[in-house]
Amino acid sequence: MTTEQSATPPSSLDPADWQELRAQGHRMLDDMFDYLEHLRERPVWQPIPQSVRATFQAPAPGKPNDLAAAHQTFMQDILPYAVGNSHPGFMGWVQGGGNPVGMLADMLAAGLNANVGGRNQIPIEVEWQVMRWVRDFFGFPEAASGLFVTGTSMANLIALWVARTAAAGVEVRQQGVAGAAPHLVAYTSAGAHGCIAQAMDLAGLGRNALRVIPMTADFEMDLSLLQAAIAADRAAGLQPFFVAATAGTVDVGAIDPLAAIADLAAKENLWFHVDGAFGALAILAPQIAPRLAGIERADSIAFDFHKWGQVPYDAGFILVRDGAAHLRTFAAPVSYLRREERGLAGGSPWPCDFGPDLSRGFRALKAWFTIQVYGTEKLGEVIAGTCELAQYLKRRIEASPMLELLAPVSLNIVCFRYRCLEILTGETESDTKKIDRINADIAVAVQESGVAAPSTTLIAGRLAIRAAIVNHRTSEREIDDLIDATLSFGAAICKIA
Ligand SMILES: *Cc1c(COP(=O)(O)O)cnc(C)c1O
Known about the structure:
Helix content is about 45%, strand content about 10%.
């Protein structure tokens, strides 16, 4: 026996034959390159056969199975039945397309198996470097802090926790909201994402303590109503502490009046948070960045690298202006996480001091690679390009008598519907209901055709087909496909309605 052989215990999960694993691994990598190279030839999404679902009902195997067989199951039964958000025809919800460089980086991160919760390691320096890049994007000071998280839902929650601790004092961590801060109230607009209300719930403040301010005709938070709500709450003896503006609303892509909200928040001593889940990274597109003016004054910004940033899922980010306040919210001395000046326990503060997670994957690496390899200018061009495509889609809708826009096209989201002239639109409630049903059916038919994948939403009580163009692979061809499919399914569904 050589020493090398005896060094690997029989219980190890490493292979007996690395050559064989290497060859298998190369086949897996090649399959993913093939998938990405030939995405356009596949349907965006396809209905899932019951037999495929049944494959995943089997109990956990006790005995080993062949890796090549598991890979085959992946190719046959998993890969074809994903949501399809990497596909250029995907326009549903707001989802990013990922990128091949980020994919490779994720493989490297998994190979390294880095736990980026803390300790003295360069993977944390990579995360801090991306944090400093983000700080620079938004003109934040050196005292700012930031962290990778799952997504903007978590980033918004972290912002709310930090704001709560800043408003109520650190005692709130001991006494809870009921003991230390029973009167805190927060504000957001009716166009805000549902995770803001959920954050109020999870932070123990309660959804009732969130004032939902109506929107203007442009789908932006109505500033005078915000002001009035704050005044009413103060008069009632409550403590306004937090306002969440949105840069790029999920329904229509509207941008709240950030600079005016920043002014008001300063005057009223509120924490000014921006949910910029997809919109914030428009700061990288010189054509759009001026419309985000005011974001540089935020106390915190939540956004996703996995949406407009095209980094593979998941890669959310929270940026906090006052890094000390951020640290005060989460840092907790426990003996097994003791820090040292040198050695592995050096390098304090650690990422786990800035959020609720202790063990954390190396999300930063795929964002670092994406920015390092493509550069911020290219990423900005991708973002601007999707907005230009949205304008192209808007023009095509305006040129089609059978289609109508349901909301202004502010960024990359287009909400429209099929008009179905056989039915008088919007004349009566029952007409609206019928038109809503028809458009919901059109959206499903387009999805099931595999040609494009829009989603739907409600705009001013009417069902809209919603195209959120986020993916760097989308071109005018996919926009044309969406229009053609909507018109042909619309005509067919309308006829039988
Ligand atoms: C997508 C989105 C969210 C939620 O972000 P996740 O990354 O899915 O958690 C929040 N706000 C807005 C405006 C969004 O578009």
